Amino acid sequence: MSEEKEEILEEKTEEVEDIAKLKTELEETTDRYKRIFAEFENYKKRTAKERENLYGSLLADIIRTFLPVMDNLEKAAIAPTTDEEYRKGVELLMKQFADVFTSLGVKTIETVGKPFDPELHEAVSMVQDETLGEKIVKAEFRKGYQIGSKVIRHAMVIVAN
Question: Which of 16, 21, 128, 153 has the highest CB neighbour count under 10 A?
Answer without folding.
Answer: 153
